[in-house]
Design brief:
CATH architecture of the domain at 216-345: 2-Layer Sandwich
CATH topology of the domain at 216-345: Nucleotidyltransferase, domain 5
Radius of gyration: 21 Å
Largest sheet: 6 strands, mixed
Strand content: 25-35%
Oligomer: single chain
Distance between the termini: 14 Å
Helix content: 25-40%
CATH class of the domain at 216-345: Alpha Beta
Number of helices: 11
CATH superfamily of the domain at 216-345: ATPase, nucleotide binding domain
């Protein structure tokens, strides 16, 4: 792909391909760190298009994206998109202090002992987080649920040798299965776009949160994306990634229960989730179903919080909810009661300038929860590195 004419000022169009819909956002930066909404659209997907994060009907998804691009009159051909789910592995690792260039040359060797995938089947990236105090207990710095893929004695000896070499530093290791990246890029290409950046949902969420919140001043918080197929838990410490986990349960589970219990079509479940009830459906029955559906999610969230607190000696102080599930009326209160901590709905659209002549304010407000990832992606700039 030839990006020689791209610069940091080149307009990118953000495409978030979710389980139930495609979201498109384009922002214009009118001042450093301040953005105006230029394009905003959403296209629903049939249930069979994407199942458990995997694209099953690529031609239908590509056609939906083509129609969305046409409807929104998108001129830019360069796109930024993201991947998430079980094909993504993120872990903090410890390595001897070295330059970014040196670690880049050694990252495959370092990653091989940690990632649960075949090293030849993944794309690797890393971010150096800084030097660490080697006197600290090693386990207390390791916030990931998964243990190294190879825990042989040889690897233990290598770690001991590395510690003896001197100062250590911490790096965030990211591995993504190439197959999943190819799935997304193929859709973009088929729709006539050129993939400039493939990011991770978790980093897009953090960028979206920064539109309204300074994460670096909030201590230890959980940013939870309530998706249709997955619930993504992201624990942020002083603005930096501390822990991430994907739970394979989402709003689709609630949708199925609502359709079954009340014998209603899919479209009517959206109204029920937002508190718009017909005369034949009682509110207390809906609340009971929502509580039953999300209790499974909350049990897993609680386990993740306890696990993180045990290893890191830090407690979660606050929860920010986003994603389609955050639009369910009263869900933030249910989360707060269960987790016994403050819970807020993240509304990144509040941090973006919106011209009322170009957009229906009530519509953008209503869709804000669904567009969090796309908004975060839209803040990205092309970087040749």
């Amino acid at each position: 792909m030839d990006f020689m004419f791209l610069s940091k000022k080149s307009p990118l169009v953000a495409i978030d391909i979710g389980s139930s819909s495609i979201k498109l956002v384009q922002l214009t930066e009118f001042k450093e760190g301040q953005y105006e909404l230029t394009r905003f659209g959403m296209m629903p997907l049939d249930k069979e298009c994407i199942v458990e994060g995997a694209i099953k009907k690529p031609e239908l998804v590509a056609n939906a994206l083509k129609n969305l691009i046409k409807a929104e009159k998108i001129q830019s051909r360069y796109a930024v998109s993201a991947v998430a789910g079980e094909a993504v592995f993120i872990k903090k690792i410890k390595v001897p202090v070295m330059s970014e260039e040196e670690l880049s040359a050694k990252i495959t060797q370092e990653a091989e002992q940690y990632i649960p995938f075949d090293i030849d089947d993944v794309a690797l990236d890393f971010q150096i987080l800084g030097a660490i105090d080697t006197d600290k207990d090693e386990e207390s710095e390791n916030f990931e649920e998964s243990e190294p893929a190879d825990d042989s004695q040889d690897n233990d000896e290598q770690k001991e040798d590395s510690n003896e070499e001197g100062e250590m530093m911490e790096a965030l290791l990211v591995a993504v299965q190439k197959e999943v990246i190819d799935e997304r890029t193929d859709i973009l290409l088929e729709a006539g776009l050129k993939p400039a950046i493939i990011d991770l949902d978790v980093f897009a969420l953090m960028n979206a949160a920064q539109l309204t919140t300074d994460l670096s001043t909030m201590g230890t918080i959980a940013l939870i994306d309530l998706g249709d197929s997955f619930t993504h838990i992201n624990i942020i410490q002083d603005g930096a990634m501390g822990y991430t986990r994907d739970i394979p349960i989402g709003g689709g589970y609630l949708t199925n229960i609502l359709m079954s219990k009340f014998q209603i079509p899919f479209k009517q479940t959206l109204d029920i989730k937002r508190g718009k009830l017909s005369s034949s459906i009682k509110e207390e029955e809906v609340v009971e179903v929502i509580v039953r559906a999300y209790k499974k999610v909350l049990e897993e969230v609680q386990k993740s919080f306890e696990y993180f607190s045990t290893l890191s000696d830090h407690k979660i102080e606050r929860v920010l909810l986003c994603g389609g599930g955050s639009m369910i009326r009263g869900l933030d209160g249910f989360f707060a009661d269960y987790l016994k901590m403050p819970v807020e709905i993240l509304d990144p659209m509040q941090g973006v300038k919106i011209n009322p002549k170009n957009f229906d304010q009530s519509l953008t407000d209503e869709m804000s929860g669904l567009s969090t990832v796309a908004l975060g992606l839209a803040t990205r700039k092309f970087d040749h590195k």
